[in-house]
Amino acid sequence: MAAGGGSSQSRARQSVIDASPALKARERAKHTAYERVLTAGLTARGADDLQARLLARTAVACLDEAIARWFADDDPARPGLEARGRETFTGLARLLRLVGPVRFGDEAIADTFLG
Description:
The chain is mainly α.
């Protein structure tokens, strides 16, 4: 994958997408297609449909975050997109371990996430 800060060509492409509702909708449709492919792959590996959909959506959200962080950094000496992706997924895994199991009922969810 790309090294260093987001390339000026990639950032320019993203700026055009961000400025166009039609292109933003097309980008969202591509992300939905990614989610479907990931969901199908996960269910083929034995995940139930809910687990597969949640993980697929989470994976695409992590990818979006990694790309956004990569685009925001102009420094070519900084980690590339692949490293940003690893950092994002690692950060999510660390957060999930920190939070632990989510309890349901009354205000249990708020208590779980907000202490």
